[in-house]
Description:
Number of strands: 3
Structural class: mainly alpha
CATH superfamily of the domain at 54-120: Winged helix-like DNA-binding domain superfamily/Winged helix DNA-binding domain
Strand order of the largest sheet: 1-3-2
Order of helices and strands: HHHHEHHEEHH
Shape: globular
CATH topology of the domain at 54-120: Arc Repressor Mutant, subunit A
CATH architecture of the domain at 54-120: Orthogonal Bundle
Radius of gyration: 20 Å
CATH class of the domain at 54-120: Mainly Alpha
Strand content: 5-15%
Mean pLDDT: 92
Amino acid sequence: MTGHHTLAETERAVANRIGGMPIDLHAMVAVSNIYRAANAIRNHLEHSVLKSADLTWTGFVVLWVIWIWDGMETRHVAQEAGISKGTLTGVVKTLIARGLVVRTIHPDDGRLVLLSLSPKGARLMNQLFPAFNAEEGFVVTGLDDAAVGDLADRLRHIVAHLEASSVDRQAALRATESNPR
C-alpha cells in the first residue's frame, strides 16, 4: 500500500464519487494506476538502492542522463531528466559538491554550460546501475518476459502518443478553456 488506503479501496471510493458523471472509467483507472505505480517504484528505489548511495530519484536520473550521453549541455540534461532548469541547478550544485559531476563552459559558446561525470561519478554509476537494475527486476517480479515486454511496449506507445500530440491538444484545450478556477 502506497497511501492511507489500498488501491482497491481508492478505486471503489472513486467509482462511488463519480457515479453519474460522463467519465471514461477505464482510462481514469489506467492513468491513475500508472501514476501510483510510478510513485511506488520511485519510493521503492529511493528507499533501497538509492538510499545506500545517498541519492534522490532526481539526482540519480540526472547522473544517469549524463552517464548515458557521456556529458551534455544543461538545458538538454533538464529536458531528458524531465525537470526544470531551476530544479536542475539545485541538483547539480549538490552533485558537484559531492564530487560526482563536473561543470564546464561550452568551448564554442561561453553562454552554455556542459555537465559531465567526474571519475568518482563514473565509478558510482558503474557500481550503482547493476544494483538499480536488480531492483528494476524486483519491481516486475511475477511478470514473465513477454508480459514485461508488452508492458514496456504499451507504456512506450503512451509516451510516443503524448510526444506527438500533447502540445496540439494542450493548445486546443486552452483555446476553448471553460474550466472552473
